[in-house]
Design a protein that fits this description.
Number of strands: 0
Order of helices and strands: HHHHHHHHH
Number of helices: 9
Helix content: over 70%
Distance between the termini: 12 Å
Largest sheet: none
Strand content: under 5%
């Protein structure tokens, strides 16, 4: 399997977790363990597959945060249908690529299992942004309830592939990530742009921390891919 495939598999895991700097504690790692994992990835040779994985994960995951917030901000701004559709298309393409990457390492059954809940959780997140724009509290609660179901499904799929990560920890991590992005959407909708961008920066730092933690976890779980 080539390096790009390895990176995509890693992205699938990390985006599904979306746990940022909380990742270490949420998957049962102590602070010291997390620091050690980050030190390990920092000490690899700069031209190694491990180093490339870390860099690419950070770049791709930061893009994931940015594209997700682009959709919610287009919703809040009442952008044209063409502009909003373009943003959503990029978001969906990313989700499909993630599912395909999962299938490339875990097989078609895993790919099929992750595709629907992963795409649906994005749909529900966008629906929440629409409900926020409309000031529809009932619709917000409906979207959040549906979102929680899909996050649980995503957590269960990844737990079946990576038993060392408990489904509950994965679900909590996913929820923390979604809560942060939802808060950013609310602040932007309310015109609190400084706070919205502050939350975006927090999400970017969060996702980069998750990339670092999980880079080491993936390398340790699949050492044959990084020889």
């Amino acid at each position: 399997m080539n390096t790009n495939s390895k990176i995509l598999v890693a992205v699938a895991v990390v985006i599904a977790l979306g746990i940022g700097t909380l990742a270490g504690t949420m998957i049962g790692k102590s602070k010291d363990d997390t620091n050690q994992m980050n030190t390990t990835t920092s000490n690899v040779a700069p031209d190694s597959a491990s180093a490339k994985l870390r860099v690419d994960l950070n770049n791709l995951l930061r893009e994931h945060v940015s594209t997700s917030l682009t959709v919610t901000r287009n919703i809040a701004d009442g952008s044209s249908e063409a502009k909003l559709d373009g943003a959503k298309a990029a978001q969906t393409a990313n989700a499909v690529a993630i599912a395909t990457a999962v299938g490339s390492i875990y097989g078609k059954d895993a790919q099929d299992a992750i595709t629907t809940p992963f795409v649906e959780h994005i749909v529900q997140s966008n629906n929440y942004a629409v409900a926020v724009k409309d000031g529809n509290m009932a619709a917000q609660e409906t979207s959040l309830a549906a979102l929680r179901v899909q996050l649980r499904n995503v957590a269960d799929v990844f737990n079946s592939a990576i038993p060392s990560l408990s489904s509950d920890s994965l679900y909590e991590a996913l929820s923390a990530h979604e809560d942060l992005l939802n808060k950013a959407a609310v602040e932007y909708q309310n015109g609190n742009y400084e706070k919205a961008y502050e939350l975006e920066n927090e999400a970017l730092v969060q996702i980069s921390g998750g990339a670092d933690v999980l880079t080491t976890g993936i390398i340790e779980s699949k050492p044959e891919m990084f020889k």
